[in-house]
């Protein structure tokens, strides 16, 4: 593949719809003029300014500050659109700065810019896939310049999982019912309509992910250079919990290949919009077409939950129905009905009001006296199993082994 910078720029610009214009709304006039100037130089390949990278970085810094001011939902859409456009422009300028062929380092920087644009920007109406397509194209180019590793790296699952299973068996609770490939009608009438959780077995055998994903080399090859958000620390309600952006390669090396006991969780992230090949490996469960109150069923929100042994999602509830599908690894789920909400002591601050103060694995009975009244439902989710978690049902999730789950919220 030719890595000459003019060819790469030409091929990237072909993805950029010429109808896009920069809107001034929500920008200060200096930033608007700088962005417009960079835009015109890039899109019309009329590179003149001495320091265009510096200029586009200033625009991105400004937009980044705006994105982090106030509540995320209140950030004007134009700011997020402009972040997408500026990330694209940065890619073109980085490449333009190369002497002749695009280097490995520049490809990596460009992919990072595309991913930050995907994570923080908003898709442009004219081409919703612009940055995802750019990242895919750049990743393929990079893969061809870097020496190819052809080794497979299959996950070694832990041997000591029997201990965890024994502990699970000792928990006093009712085991969640299970059904083997129930018909849509059975699922709807016996579980969905009554909002009763159920484990669904045998429903993922046709997913390509089941065979492909436990070879971690697949992720390295497909997405090693892609930037992903990782939660650091075992539990988001802990004080020392934080979030970090890193490449997929760094994530897999640190939390799967090394012997470190540190915990990093690629959690609640729509990896499938970012890396479309991964979406081809999964299938939306047909059960997600069930709807309450005859409302039209909507496309589910799909999220990835990829992490080492020991990740914990503390006891919380969500506003949507959920099917949590287990691709590899084993997870323990502890569920409580919304009827038990008071007995679980939700946090009082709004930000954490969907999270319980009680830790069901280590409850402080003196502080949370009514917790003993709450009825536990428990489930072990093994590879190929799905769990239906009805709206607002409280759930606490622990990975007993290295694990990848996909959630479908609707
Ligand atoms: O798997 C996990 O760690 C948590 C999943 C979850 O909370 C969800 O899908 O809503």
Automatic annotation (TrEMBL):
Q: Name one Pfam family in it.
A: Cupin_8
Q: Which domain of life is it from?
A: Eukaryota
Q: Which InterPro entries match?
A: Cupin_8, JmjC_dom
**Residues annotated as domain JmjC:** 273-410
Looking at the UniProt record for this protein, which Gene Ontology cellular component terms does it annotate, in alphabetical order? nucleus
Annotated keywords: Iron, Metal-binding, Nucleus, Oxidoreductase
Which protein, by its recorded name, is this?
A: JmjC domain-containing protein
Q: Which PROSITE patterns match?
A: JMJC (PS51184)
Query: Can the keyword tRNA processing be found in this entry's annotation?
Result: no
| Names of required cofactors | Fe(2+)
* Protease among keywords: no
Q: Which GO terms describe its molecular function?
A: histone H3K36 demethylase activity; metal ion binding
Entry's localization field: Nucleus
């Amino acid at each position: 593949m030719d890595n000459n910078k003019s060819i790469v720029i030409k091929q990237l610009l072909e993805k950029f719809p010429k109808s896009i214009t920069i809107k001034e709304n929500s920008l200060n006039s200096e930033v608007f003029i700088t962005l417009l100037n960079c835009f015109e130089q890039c899109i019309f390949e009329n590179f003149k300014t001495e320091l265009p990278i510096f200029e586009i970085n200033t625009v991105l810094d400004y937009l980044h500050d705006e994105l982090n001011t106030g509540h995320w939902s209140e950030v004007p859409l134009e700011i997020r659109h402009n972040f997408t456009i500026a990330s694209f422009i940065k890619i073109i300028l980085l490449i333009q700065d190369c002497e002749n062929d695009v280097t490995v380092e520049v490809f990596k920087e460009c992919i990072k810019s595309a991913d930050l644009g995907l994570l923080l920007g908003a898709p442009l109406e004219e081409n919703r896939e612009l940055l995802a397509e750019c990242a895919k194209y750049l990743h393929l180019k990079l893969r061809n310049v870097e020496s190819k590793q052809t080794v497979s790296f299959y996950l070694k699952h832990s041997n000591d999982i029997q201990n965890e299973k024994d502990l699970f068996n000792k928990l006093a609770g009712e085991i969640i019912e299970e059904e083997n490939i129930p018909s849509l009608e059975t699922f709807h009438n016996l579980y969905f309509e009554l909002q009763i959780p159920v484990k669904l077995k045998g429903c993922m055998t046709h997913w390509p992910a089941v065979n492909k994903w436990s070879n971690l080399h697949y992720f390295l090859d497909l997405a090693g250079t892609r930037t992903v958000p990782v939660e650091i620390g075992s539990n988001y309600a802990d004080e020392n919990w934080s979030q970090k952006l890193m490449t997929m390669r760094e994530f897999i090396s640190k939390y799967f290949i090394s012997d470190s006991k540190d915990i990093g969780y690629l959690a609640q992230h729509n990896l499938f919009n970012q890396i479309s090949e991964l979406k081809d490996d999964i299938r939306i469960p047909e059960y997600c077409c069930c709807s309450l109150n005859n409302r039209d069923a909507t496309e589910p929100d799909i999220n990835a939950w990829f992490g080492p042994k020991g990740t914990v999602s503390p006891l919380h509830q969500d506003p949507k129905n959920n099917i949590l599908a287990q691709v590899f690894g084993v997870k323990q789920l502890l569920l409580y009905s919304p009827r038990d909400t008071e007995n679980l002591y939700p946090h009082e601050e709004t930000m954490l009001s969907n999270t319980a103060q009680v830790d069901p694995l280590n409850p402080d009975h003196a502080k949370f006296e009514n917790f003993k009244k709450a009825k536990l439902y428990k489930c072990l989710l093994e590879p190929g199993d799905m769990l239906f978690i009805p709206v607002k049902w409280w759930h606490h999730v622990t990975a007993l082994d290295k694990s990848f789950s996909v959630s479908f919220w609707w």
